[in-house]
Amino acid sequence: MLDRSDRLSVGALAARYRERTAIVAVVGLGYVGLPLVRGLIGAGFRVIGLDVDAGKIDALKRGEAYISHLSAPMFSSAIEDGRFNATTSFRDLHEADAILICVPTPLTAHREPDLSFVENTARSIRPNLRAGQLIVLESTSYPGTTRTVIKPILEQSKLKSGKDFFIAYSPEREDPGNIKFSTSEIPKVVGGDGEDALKLADALYSSFVRQTVLVSSPETAEAVKITENVFRSVNIALANELKVIYTEMGIDVWEVIEAAKTKPFGFMPFYPGPGLGGHCIPIDPFYLTWKSREYGLATRFIELAGEINTMMPRYVISRIVDELNARTGRGLNGTRILIMGLAYKKNIDDARESPSFKLIELLEKQGAICELHDPLISVIPCTREHPHLAGRRSVALSYEAVSEYDAVLIATDHDSIDYQLLANSAKILIDTRNVCARAGAVGSNIVKA
Predict the structure, then answer these.
(1) Catalytic hit among 102, 280, 370, 436
(2) For residue range 391-424, what is the model confidence (pLDDT) as tens digits?
(3) Is 280 a catalytic residue?
(4) Model pLDDT for residues 325-364, shown as the tens digit of each residue
(5) Model confidence, pTM
(6) Which of 216, 246, 262 is the last residue of a domain?
(7) For the domain that residue 137 is a member of, what is the CATH number?
(8) Contact 261/216 with Cβ under 8 angstroms?
(9) Lowest CB count within 10 Å: 94, 333, 347, 410, which one?
């Protein structure tokens, strides 16, 4: 245990962070952890990257990318010159001066927080914990997770937070595929369990991130992340509700939004779509909803937004049915539908929580025959909620192939898709992203939904 004379060790550790001579470990090498590793390596740190998925570790060592927007050679080069140790062993964490936890925080089948990945990671770190280490949780969770979940597990080692080791919370703010903002360019919110933990976390992140934003506690930092995603969820729900209303009035909601955003104050554009996707917006608000029940409080605004966004795939299906009936006199049973895009947003290969999964299930439940095209995802991956769709392959695009489908549904607006080809060849083209208008593709067969 650090005694009073050893308090200088906190300053010495902070200096190691600032001088980039510390060893930093990142646990969880997914869409959050791997960009974090990239930022740390780029700043000159020696990095330990740990993931329980041996396939990811092997891919990194072979110089292969499993996240399309990240450069695989950077990681393999760092492995070769000893700056990056990619491993599946938690024993390697004993060498680290800081351990950053970037593991999933999904929902259960009953839409309650599933912290099993966080808890299991903390339990695996505990036997390898040593005095002087900084542990930072980056995974999104409800306020209180760092101090009421992570801290007690780690303190079962007999080491004490704030005396022997230090814990903090710094929420990830990754936007996969956004070339304007890399990890190092996005301001980092930091809250520590005590003054020393905050100083250490600030010293670490400020050594490779453009700006740190220090807050009074881990709970405040956790609330910042939840607030960011609740804000987006609520405003997207509003855009989706306006889409439904304005469509009935014969008004193009996208045209309305484009005109409204010319106001230089008091308006921020959010856009409708076929449903929410990604690991943040469909999930994170429900962490706050669950936690608020502990205080006897209802989150009516958040839950209403969730209901509206969750209903969007069904609304899109209803639009397809209406168009099929009006143009062909047929329903969905036996119709062939091509889904354009599996990724939850354009120009990335990330299918987590993608609304395309729900669209396919709803269509096939009514007898439709669905196929998929995504230029960045060749095979549907196995997921917890949609395992039966795993293994389906992306089909090739051509004028002749597209013309054989009864309808084409644009769910993801990848830039690399030829929308003019779709407009020229599809019998019915259902556009949930307004991408045809942006691409200059027009035709009586195009329907916004």
Answers:
(1) 280
(2) 999 999 999 999 999 999 999 999 999 999 999 9
(3) yes
(4) 999 999 999 999 999 999 999 999 999 999 999 999 999 9
(5) 0.92
(6) 216
(7) 3.40.50.720
(8) no
(9) 333
